[in-house]
Amino acid sequence: MTEGAETKPARVVVADDQTVVREGIVMLLGLLPGVEVVGAAGDGEEAVELVAALAPDVVLMDLRMPRCDGVEATRRIRADHPGTQVVVLTTFADDESLFPALKAGARGYLTKDAGGEEIVRAVQSVLSGDAGLSPSIQRRLLERLSDPEPPQSAPAEAPDGLTAREVEVLALIAEGLTNQEIARELHVSTATVKTHINNLFAKTGIKDRAQAVRYAYAKGLVRPPMGGVT
Known about the structure:
Layout: H1 3-7, E1 10-15, H2 19-30, E2 35-41, H3 44-54, E3 58-61, H4 70-80, E4 85-90, H5 95-104, E5 108-111, H6 116-127, E6 132-133, H7 135-146, H8 164-174, H9 179-186, H10 190-204, H11 209-218
Parallel strand pairs: 1-2, 1-3, 3-4, 4-5, 5-6
Helix pairs in contact: 3-4, 4-5, 8-10, 8-11, 9-10
């Protein structure tokens, strides 16, 4: 690596739909050496457009954003602009957020409690060809590799042609969660939850949430509370 390459700051785009968070990250990185923020996006669609226009070295990508979420934006950026790396910077460190993002092509994954220096290290790591993962994320990956069989959230053969995701939604309905609460639990939009509910109602002939609870218990998809179901 030449001396010029060593001192040249990494050109970074920050993508986050929360204005306060986005501006805070931009301000934080502006105080640190080795990084130059060249753009900021309020959603995944804008992030893709900025990458096409600015050709940054790295995008710091939130996951839950409108129009185009972080996973889809990562997939599009890595497919169309392979010279730009993606480091996920998100509130969520659950498997459902982590593994789709990495499969989409993200080379780094940090949670938003990461400090500025940790973010810069992750940016420099992905640019040098390494992975930019926080220690907690590395542990999650090692645990997943050591136990490759993921926990089953639904039976292998779900009744009435239900998908695994529809069974998940049904189980959360049985727990008494609202659509908004289910959306937060699964890290998807409320509209997506409604689509899953409409699909599972159509497949099973269920008419309302009370019937959904009874169906879930009858099919053994969830365990009834002590005392059974009346």
